[in-house]
Specification:
about 40% helix; Glutaredoxin; 4-stranded mixed β-sheet; about 25% strand; 3 helices; globular; alpha+beta
């Protein structure tokens, strides 16, 4: 399962969610406006949103990087 940590009014976050929706990739969105989600996002070591986590492949990235997302789909 893909988890995407997001922030309100974040264009890269919106673009990332759109990419996953358009490619029929299910994901769980976790807004950092919730304190627990914020702490979990900080634990990844990244500060730029969105933070994309794919635990099955031990993959974590930050920002909107469609090339990396396409690699994950392969």
């Amino acid at each position: 399962m893909v988890t995407i940590f997001t922030n309100e009014n974040c264009m890269p976050c919106n673009m990332t969610k759109k990419f996953f929706k358009e490619n029929s990739i299910p994901f769980l969105e976790r807004s950092i406006t919730d304190e627990k989600n914020l702490e979990d996002a900080k634990a990844t070591g990244f500060t730029q949103m969105p933070i994309v986590v794919l635990s099955e492949k031990n993959y974590v990235s930050s920002g909107f990087v469609p090339a990396k997302f396409k690699e994950l789909m392969a």
